[in-house]
Amino acid sequence: MTAVARTRSQLEAARAGWTEAGESIAVVMTMGALHAGHAELIRRARERDERVIVTDFLNPLQFAPGEDLDKYPRTFAADLELCTAEGVDLLFAPGPSEVYPAGDPIVRVAAGPVGDVLEGEARPGHFDGVLTVVAKLLHLTAPHRAYFGQKDAQQLWLIKQMVVDLDLPVEVVEVPTVRDDDGLALSSRNIYLVEADRAQALTLHRALEAGESAASNGAAAAVAAAKAELAESGVKCDYVVLVDPESFAAMDGSGQAILLVAAHVGSTRLIDNVRLRVGSGHR
Ligand code: PAF
User: Ligand 1 centre from 134 Cα, in Å?
Assistant: First the structure.
């Protein structure tokens, strides 16, 4: 059974023995409501590292007033079961007063310009909240490697950049998005989708596939094809954009790219992305 730590000292006590034995430690950070996407992160961690810590902390700092913090799914018993089934060594599940003992932190990590666009434009302050808690959880868990999903592409880019810019001693490992058989990218928020929404939600994946198919004809063609797919289904599109994976800047040339989409399905806002090659006739 996976051990549970609720406090910093319980976490420290658990990892002290591992450090002494020279074992490599991985962390998989989550906000709970674990699903097969998290299980994949854990499996990847277990393949490479001797000890795996999963953090389960619903971080209030990354939710703006009026967002879904209050209704975010809380499924601790099932999360612990998944961790146990996947062989996780420790589930670190602190409350807000353990992570932020002095209340909301005055000093935070600033995500910079990439934190203000796309998801950051829709959710002001979100990425400062994400990076602040990720930095704190990295300090507390002190892992050799941290595993994050490509599903949250902008978050992943910002975490990797923070690790470089702030010289954090950890290797970030990115793990491809896990999808249901029908293509829907797994997300804890999929729980909000009622039956009719779910069918519409598949449009995001179809839009990305359409974009991918058109990518050999250039950036504009890829974006247009994805937008056309979304328009046909009637979902409210927030953005469809191609970015350079290195800089996360919008790109209109050719080369490796990430095609990102955000759309509202019912009352749920969903995001998805695919990595592709633009131009030169290749996928
Ligand atoms: O991706 C998430 O679940 C969260 O943003 C993270 C990285 C655990 C930080 O709270």
Answer: 7
